[in-house]
Amino acid sequence: MSLHHRWAQPSSVCHQWNSHGYDIAKVFGGKFTHISPVWLQIKRRGRELFEVTGLHDVDQGWMRTVRKQAKGLRIVPRLLFEGWSHEDFHSVWDSEDEIEELSKTMVQVAKSQHFDGFVVEVWGQLPGQEHTGLIHMLTHMAEALHQARLLAVLVIPPAVIPGTDQLGTFTVKQWEQLAPVLDGFSLMTYDYPTAQQPGPNAPLSWVRACVQVLDPKAQWRSKILLGLNFYGSDYSASRGGREPVVGTRYIQMLKEHRPQMVWDSQAAEHYFEYKKSRGGRHVMFYPTLKSLQVRLELARELGVGLSIWELGQGLDYFYDLL
To answer: Quick one: which of 64, 168, 272, 310 could link to 15 by a disulfide (CB 3.0–4.6 Å)?
Structure first.
């Protein structure tokens, strides 16, 4: 669950798709402005025919409990454009009737399921030259959702490609087109390293650059939700692989190996090394209270909100900082 978007102050949008995340939302829901369960997909079944799937995962009882305990909390499920071909996208972009039907389907599902809107994940599915049609579709979609008093948030890739000085696939021009239209942008400022180049999950200077490059004039900063990973990464020196690490495994590694924690002052993240009996040397990066506090301070300085990926993956005391 994600999207810990604190909208009134900076927002906090928490994404959730693991079971512990549901419990965390019940206990700490008052710390979040929005929660985004990863439940849904939207599919194009034919001309002007769309279906939202994944509704069997929707837990109305959990939604009622969380809303009762956290007044004003918005539930905005993540909506994936799943199974869409290149032709599907172009058919929709070329027809106002298709866009209208798509938007109508989203509104109907949100109303019938008591959602407060959606977090749309679609940007990374298309090459850069295709984004004009996508912006047109998103603009109409947002208008339809707003008319129904629903929220529209978009997941966007980092503004600076990790490990380079190159700009990402979501440009300043596109930002300026969509920032006035959408309610928020979940910025994916994590997953910086690759399996071939072990390193911190989200170096602080890169995180800062991703915000400043995207919105240099700080005109729409309150709509940016800075991605904050509550998971870590475990790198194998011998196999060259990378595995995601959640809180339970992190604690297990600390108990088994009692490693020496090292603070990477440049990246502002902790890591440690350990050896497996047969697997050779490993390096593990995982969030700590110190690394998270530094990023919360950066978010305040930049005037942005937070988007946590994801509830239930971190250690429960992380939420004390929020």
So the answer is: 310
